[in-house]
Amino acid sequence: MTRKERFDFIIKYFQEHNPNAETELLYSNPYELLVAVILSAQCTDKRVNMTTPELFRRFPDMPSLARADKDEVLVYIKSISYPNNKAKHLVGMAQKVMSDFGGNIPMTVAELITLPGVGRKTANVITSVVDAQPNMAVDTHVFRVAARIGLTVNAKTPLATELQLLKFIPKDLVYIAHHWLILHGRYVCVARNPKCDICGLKPACKYYQQHLKNTTIADNAL
After folding, report:
1. What is the per-residue pLDDT across 180-211, written as a single tens digit (0 to 9) for each?
2. Considering the domain 30-131 in this protein, what is its CATH number?
3. Is 43 annotated as a binding residue?
4. Whether 140 contacts 190, CB under 8 Å
5. What are φ and ψ of residue 27, in 5° steps?
6. CA separation for the pair 120, 56 (Å, rounded)
7. What is the CATH code for 3-20+136-221?
8. Is 205 annotated as a binding residue?
9. d(Cα 117, Cα 38) in Å, to the nearest integer?
């Protein structure tokens, strides 16, 4: 199977089996999504979703968060990983959005990464989810799954992974492809003991084919 054929197989599979894939973070507007994505760094979406309702009740919009003190925000996010840094980032992000962008969240990666707490991955998530831009966010799940399946080759960094994926995924599908890969990595192609027995991508997966080959060799050696 060529690399293009592998991509074609996987895209077709997800289009049939998960056509409406979307983020599992709960939000009702771009402000809430941006806050939730910042909080989700090295933290589960489940934990973030448990935390944000009270946070959003106290700080319902960008102006209210910009007026907050870091310690005020910290009270609401103590159960999140790295709460001190994230509280500082959230307040700094809101203040910069208010001062530099007139209170409107910018919708380009270049502008978003100027905000405290916002890196390339977060910027790609925001622009792809809010505006369906063809930006590929690469987290640990996407990085792992893409390499295992064989979508990427010797991609040593998230950026290298992003660029390789963008080369083969049609532009109009990039915004949803991130969700396909992250959800597959979260529930099927998990870090330890991937659930190959229930995976529909086996025919196109390099990891599975190698595992099958090794199992056959071991059986024949008995």
Report:
1. 999 999 999 999 999 999 999 999 999 998 87
2. 1.10.340.30
3. no
4. no
5. -160, 160
6. 24
7. 1.10.1670.10
8. yes
9. 6
Assigned token pair, 59: 């700080």
Among residues 12, 69, 121, 195, the one annotated as catalytic is 121
Using CA atoms, how far apart are residues 175 and 130, in angstroms rounded to an integer?
10
Could you tell me if 128 and 99 are in contact, meaning their C-beta atoms sit under 8 angstroms apart?
no
Q: Give the per-residue pLDDT at 213.
A: 60
Is residue 171 part of the annotated active site? The answer reads no
Catalytic residue from among 4, 69, 139, 195: 139
Give residue-wise pLDDT tens across range 93-143. Answer: 999 999 999 999 999 999 999 999 999 999 999 999 999 999 999 999 999
* pLDDT, averaged across the chain: 93
Question: In sequence order, what E strands does 7-158 have?
Answer: none
What's the rounded Cα separation, in Å, for the pair 124 and 138? Answer: 8
Indicate if 139 belongs to the active site: yes
Domain boundaries, the chain: 3-20+136-221, 30-131
Segment 17-23 mean pLDDT: 95
